[in-house]
Design goal:
The chain has 278 residues and is of the alpha/beta class. 50% of the residues lie in helices and 12% in strands.
Length: 278
């Protein structure tokens, strides 16, 4: 067990798998008392037991991040359980996205409610306690899609961009209270669900290999390490920042990405004897 978050209480909203769970586990490894939130409840309780088995401190509180009363109850639960709140990671996500002409209005609303509004509400109820406690750190999970547009992502990309700017705006308002607010912008991270997806779609795994300058997508551990840095005292002079963790994906010109992918795939064809039509 480490000590980078020793004595601190952290709330992580969102799913009890993937990035949310990885970050909660990493925070607990560094000494934080962690409150997990997400569905289903069984998975949340299993995540808590895994953290405890590894020597960490954790609890689960079921709450719907789309509802203000649930988020208020989640924050209150963390404070009643562990005495204070130091870190809030707004990690909830909804991926019902499409191109504008195909985007259902109800899905657009759901994406913004489950992500942008959830960040706003979670922060709204956490801030008074952090102010009273003398400071804290809030981290919104955004995406490289909040910086650059992707195909068929009208609602998702727009919501992630809004989350990034919300972090900047909050940093301006609450810096004088010693509260830092940042956004985390992952590229493609191989979560549990994406492992199965890549098994079913090996061509996508090959494409990612050549599009990313580092030659691969990121791991859950890598994104959790980045989140840990931002919420820890090591980042004490960093606020209003959108930290990109994407293996160099957004550092390159698009023609460079296309050329890299083309060269890599052609090299595979030459090595295997396949033809382009195959």
């Amino acid at each position: 067990m480490g000590t980078r978050l020793a004595g601190k209480t952290a709330v992580v909203t969102g799913f009890t798998s993937g990035i949310g769970r990885a970050c909660a586990e990493r925070f607990a490894e560094e000494g934080a008392s962690v409150v997990l939130n997400g569905y289903p409840r069984e998975r949340g309780e299993e995540a808590v037991e895994a953290i405890r088995a590894a020597g960490g401190t954790a609890a689960y509180c079921e709450a719907d991040v789309r509802k203000g009363e649930d988020l208020q109850r989640l924050i209150r639960y963390a404070i009643e359980t562990y005495g204070k709140l130091d870190v809030l990671m707004n990690n909830a996500i909804c991926g019902r996205s499409a191109a504008v002409l195909d985007q259902e209005e109800s899905d657009w609303d759901e994406v913004f409610t489950a992500s942008v509004k959830a960040c706003y509400l979670g922060s709204k109820y956490a801030l008074p306690h952090m102010i009273q406690n003398g400071g804290g750190s809030i981290l919104h999970t955004a995406s490289v899609h909040g910086l650059l547009g992707g195909a068929q992502g009208a609602a998702y990309d727009s919501a992630k961009a809004a989350i990034i700017h919300l972090a900047r705006q909050m940093a301006v308002d609450y810096g004088t209270h010693n509260i830092r607010v940042n956004a985390l912008c992952p590229g493609r991270i191989v979560t549990e669900g994406k492992v199965e997806f890549l098994k079913r779609h090996p061509e996508e795994a090959r494409r990612q290999k050549y599009v990313y300058p580092l030659g691969r997508p990121g791991t859950l551990q890598e994104i959790a390490n980045a989140a840990l840095f931002l919420v820890s005292d090591e980042a004490s002079f960093i606020t209003g920042h959108a930290l990109v963790v994407d293996g160099g994906l957004t550092a390159q010109l698009q023609d460079s990405a296309a050329a890299r992918a083309e060269e890599g795939l052609l090299r595979e064809i030459n090595l295997t004897g396949e033809t382009a039509s195959e």
